[in-house]
């Protein structure tokens, strides 16, 4: 004997299952949407500096979507900004144990360790992070800054330059390297080269304005404190820097009346002509020098040089120059706003 099920009963069961599945799907979708909205709200509060409320909202978002790494990272960062380092470390530790953890997660945890002076743990973390992300300019920079905090500058510069080589478009390594070399009168070339790359990668920040002054000071030191025959003594083991300084010596007479924005324009114009006419661009490709050549060819080199050296020498005089050369200044500004300065791999020459 068997139980006979009617076709109508089977149909009704299927309808019930379909409706039940649909209810669960809608509930899951609503939950995801709630988490997404909470995350959006939390990020907005974080950007506004309302850290307490940001943390509360992000925690609620994480309860809705506990596997979301982006929510976890922002929650850790919000706690860091709120100086609740214990909570930030707790969240960050959980993040880096997950397969999808990225270099930013290591960066946040490292900043927390540095904030509470757990330097050994920070160093161990950065070494672990660099091993996992060997091309991370962020982690090389963070490790270098940790070493600098411990007064180990000679080792710090090694990590900043490793960061430049591994990730040539991360600006902070150039900044720190240029500032490191600016502390002495030797290696002025690397102040000028790294510093100018930095202002092209990071064109409108408070660090940019400071770097422009550092660049102008480096040129002043070179021309006023050293004789031309001394220029190349520091670079005999670095062919690229040696070649640059030898070419730069060709224009020494153009600086006779002082290190001014106009005279530096003449010096650097001569450099571009000699560098490319001599074929050195093929031996040592440089995105920075390619940009110089492009600006010279398109009539923007003076505007570019004024943007760096004119602004550093005298902001008031620079504004006067902009007003008197409106078309050139506007063309350069438009170029800057529309272009992305990007350095290809393989143009690191400071071995």
TrEMBL record:
The keyword Transmembrane applies. InterPro entries: TPR-like_helical_dom_sf (IPR011990), TPR_rpt (IPR019734). Transmembrane segments: none annotated. It is found in: Membrane. PROSITE patterns: TPR. It holds the Pfam family TPR_19. It is a single-pass membrane protein. Residues 1-30 form the signal peptide. Gene3D superfamilies: Tetratricopeptide repeat domain. The lineage of its organism: Bacteria, Pseudomonadati, Bacteroidota, Chitinophagia, Chitinophagales. This is Tetratricopeptide repeat protein. The keyword Signal applies. Belongs to the Tom70 family. TPR repeats lie at residues 35-68, 103-136, 137-170. Keywords: Membrane, Repeat, Signal, TPR repeat, Transmembrane, Transmembrane helix. One of its GO terms (cellular component) is membrane.
């Amino acid at each position: 004997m068997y139980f006979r099920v009617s076709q109508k009963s089977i149909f009704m069961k299927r309808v019930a299952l379909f409706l039940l599945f649909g209810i669960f799907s809608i509930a899951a979708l609503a939950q995801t949407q709630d988490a997404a909205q909470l995350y959006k709200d939390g990020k907005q509060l974080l950007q506004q500096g309302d850290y307490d409320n940001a943390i509360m909202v992000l925690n609620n978002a994480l309860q809705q979507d506990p596997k979301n790494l982006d929510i976890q990272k922002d929650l850790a960062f919000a706690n860091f900004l709120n100086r609740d380092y214990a909570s930030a470390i707790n969240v960050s530790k959980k993040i880096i144990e997950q397969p999808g953890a990225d270099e930013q997660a290591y960066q946040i945890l490292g900043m927390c360790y540095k904030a509470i002076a757990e330097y050994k743990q920070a160093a161990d973390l950065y070494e672990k992070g660099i091993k996992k992300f060997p091309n991370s300019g962020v982690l090389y920079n963070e490790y270098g800054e940790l070493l600098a905090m411990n007064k180990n500058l000679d080792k710090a510069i090694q990590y900043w330059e490793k960061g430049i080589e591994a990730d040539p478009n991360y600006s902070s390594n150039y900044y720190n390297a240029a500032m490191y070399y600016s502390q002495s009168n030797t290696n002025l070339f690397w102040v000028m080269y790294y510093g100018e790359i930095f202002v092209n990668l990071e064109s409108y920040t408070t660090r940019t304005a400071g770097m422009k002054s550092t660049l102008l000071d480096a040129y002043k030191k070179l021309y006023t404190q050293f004789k031309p025959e001394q220029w190349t003594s520091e670079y005999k083991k670095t062919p690229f820097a040696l070649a640059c300084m030898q070419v730069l010596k060709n224009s020494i007479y153009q600086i006779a009346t002082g290190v001014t924005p106009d005279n530096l324009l003449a010096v650097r114009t001569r450099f571009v002509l000699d560098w490319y006419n001599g074929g050195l661009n093929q031996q040592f490709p440089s995105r920075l020098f390619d940009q110089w050549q492009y600006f010279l060819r398109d009539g923007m080199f003076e505007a570019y040089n004024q943007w760096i050296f004119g602004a550093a020498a005298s902001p008031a005089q620079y504004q006067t120059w902009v007003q008197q050369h409106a078309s050139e200044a506007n063309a350069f500004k438009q170029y800057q706003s529309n272009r992305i300065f990007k350095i290809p791999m393989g143009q690191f020459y400071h071995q």
